[in-house]
User: Fold these one by one.
Assistant:
Number 1:
Amino acid sequence: MEGEVGMRVAVLGLGSMGAGMAASLRQTGHTVTGFDVVDASRNAFAAGGGTAATSAAEAAKGADAVVSVVVNASQTEALLFGEGGVAAAMQAGAVFVSCATMDPDAARSLAARLEASGQHYLDAPMSGGPARAATGELTVMASGSAAAFGQARPVLDAIAAKVYELGDAAGAGAAFKMINQLLAGVHIAAACEAISFAAKQGLDLKRVYEVITASAGNSWMFENRVPHVLDGDYAPKSAVEIFVKDLGIVQDMARRERFPVPVSAAALQMFLAAAGAGMGREDDASLARVYASLSGATLPKSDGTKE
Amino acid sequence: MEGEVGMRVAVLGLGSMGAGMAASLRQTGHTVTGFDVVDASRNAFAAGGGTAATSAAEAAKGADAVVSVVVNASQTEALLFGEGGVAAAMQAGAVFVSCATMDPDAARSLAARLEASGQHYLDAPMSGGPARAATGELTVMASGSAAAFGQARPVLDAIAAKVYELGDAAGAGAAFKMINQLLAGVHIAAACEAISFAAKQGLDLKRVYEVITASAGNSWMFENRVPHVLDGDYAPKSAVEIFVKDLGIVQDMARRERFPVPVSAAALQMFLAAAGAGMGREDDASLARVYASLSGATLPKSDGTKE
């Protein structure tokens, strides 16, 4: 039923998240045009039946909603206001749905600039991986004007199982997301510190996983990431560099606000160590390998033996 | 049916945990004798219908099982082998069930000394608070010889909903517990860092709690401790000093094993700061008050206003 009942939506950024969201939007009946600066991503999207544009501005032209699935604030700014930026191409009354995790100040600044020219900006960072993007079951932490929410509603309905409406201006969505990322990053580092320390002591790691996930030491991230360590599988489900970026934003925000964050600062050092050791694009459970290499702890290998 | 079908059990340490365990043991039909060096605890136990002994050794004499509910390794050592210690009073074949959280090396040492004189030692640190102690629903992370487990079984059945059997010698139970405490301590500090940082940004903290507990940033501790901050209630459900102790043990173990633990080291500093600021005996969610006092963040007060 594509195109019969829906909006015209541009999806900018066709990596695993953007491609999944585009698919969800098409399945819900929207007319989707996609663009990615990477040829392979654009071609894969077209090969899957999507309509690929030759530029971001072309995709955005005439769209009711433009969904930005790029990585950070500077990419979002370039996409909106750089050479060939979409702000100039978007029609009046259209909404820009910004999904990147960024400093709330950056979200406020981008929104103010776009709103000045008569378009709407929804600050809408997401939670949930590619699998949930593909099934339209993301969680969105959103804030923006009533007009932005109103215009973006059909998009949100298509891509998200849960939309938190967190305020009437850009910035609140970003701020909530950063609180989540602070915790998530610390919990990944703590999980890797703990499971490697258990390995150093020669404990049965599968038993550690069983006991901890049923105890007060559990976290969403411990439960989700430690299986990668148990399997010796560091193929990137979420890469080390993501939290180098996100805990970096936390540090920048906290420094600006004169707020000490010693625990997340320590966690960031471990993500930096993993990236510095060459694992930046591998799974973030790779922090366990850093602890192991620093201590002589023995972790499981992917073939079931120990490395 | 007290005393009709059960064992003779001594419970040494009648604080909120020990008193609850003694109650569970009595309800299950065991004959319980209790002792505490604190007169008030001993008198409260007697007033509640318990049989209080005049010394630990008197309580242990003739007991089939001696349950030690003291705070740490040094108290456990003093209880067993100090002046008037129970090791000399325990009959051959009786089991000493040690519930304190301690360094695995200390557990191994205590077990070896007690086993040398013909008694059994079960390394049995617990998880779960006073409420679950009172209903016999603790979680126990236990290790010890088959004889120790066999002799302690009726006690474990009475006090625990779940018993993890983690090895055939003392030390493994303690090691698993320390992995849990590493994570739990980091997660408390991270929860306080995050919720205070949210307060500094002026976010709606109840909404933060709602969003985070449904997101990847969640932890058992975030879910459990942040409500104390939202209520401005720092009456001690678990005191700051507990994790000064337990993360201190983690640091001691890690230093000895040449294992770097930067994340839990940073968390310990925040527990030390809270204790140093005079909150050692208050709830461990007090770390949020340390962050607030260092940054000018405004947290909820117990009367519903902000402090």
Number 2:
Amino acid sequence: MPIDPNAPLVLTAYRWVPSFVHGLVRDVRVRWACEEAGLAYAEDLIDVRHKPDGYEAVQPWKQVPALRDGDVRYFESGAILLHIAEKDARLLPPAGQARADTMSWFIAALNSVDPGAIELNNVNFFSRGQDWAEQRMPSLIEGLAKKLEPVAHRLAQRDWLAGEFSIADVLMIHVLMAIDSASDLISSQPTLAAYVERGKARPAWQQALADQLAAFERNTPKEN
Amino acid sequence: MPIDPNAPLVLTAYRWVPSFVHGLVRDVRVRWACEEAGLAYAEDLIDVRHKPDGYEAVQPWKQVPALRDGDVRYFESGAILLHIAEKDARLLPPAGQARADTMSWFIAALNSVDPGAIELNNVNFFSRGQDWAEQRMPSLIEGLAKKLEPVAHRLAQRDWLAGEFSIADVLMIHVLMAIDSASDLISSQPTLAAYVERGKARPAWQQALADQLAAFERNTPKEN
């Protein structure tokens, strides 16, 4: 149970968000990594519609997550995961090909797969019904399917991207969950679907998700 | 002059590409970081249209760059830059807020700015003339302009994103160059335009670019 109000790690997350993004807001990645590493963290919950004054000095785009570790502040879930992982070799091997594989697949999730996932979520949720969005969908799905092929190929022979479970899996599985929320690209691909299920079966993921949802539950606005 | 055929670092890049992507192919980021750190590297040049057999085991999407460091192989320019930077504190401070700022802005370039740049380049170069691409352009430019605001704000008071020049700047400046190749978002923003110019003025960038272009020049197909 790593949530501890006195922990030196302080995670900034939202108090509440609408249900269609439950489990998708990116602080859950950090919660997951902390649970895997057994690292306690405190929560700093902020309002999604009314950000604290000066919050742009903490997170330039006024998004979450952000992390404070003692006096040091990080933003971007990818940077925070790397910082957490440097504390625990289980999440990022210290050297050799195991580290190289973890880092390469970790960055691949951020920069080769997530850009298509971001566009898909924009087309599907935020631009839905617009002419261009409807026209774009087929080629976007086709391009994303091609991006996912090497990921499935990699996972055909192994449970996790880089040998043992690592931050590469935290990130890739969470990106695949975002794709799954807006398409059937994951459910139609048995290797990828099974990989996401393996992630969801981990007690650390279940605790991380429960803790994100618990905050939303506690702080549901009265009008909703 | 870090190119050395006997160096333990071996960078995979293309022998030749068409001129509209000169300077944009991502091996130039690695060349730039190596030049900044004074690290020698050898070139392993491959054909963009006919990849070597089995190349998908080196780079899952059969793209460049890839890096071999002795026996260890990396792919994804972001992962390679982190590996290079771990060898030289000038590119990535070892601890404290300076490291946190560098890592946060480094990942921001990859995951907050580059996804929009990737979509822009797709719309502008690879999907040009398609109905949806024409319709998408205004909202895409508007969204990207908003993403760039905090970057310009950060750079209004400083030359580089995280104090001294770092891998965050290598990545962010190269992403901005890609945006500049497809829009006037950079040239219309004096702070960002000046930042890119500061990057281009660095001898390490000039050498990196010259070395990428020299390979293309040497290997221009006869029919072109």
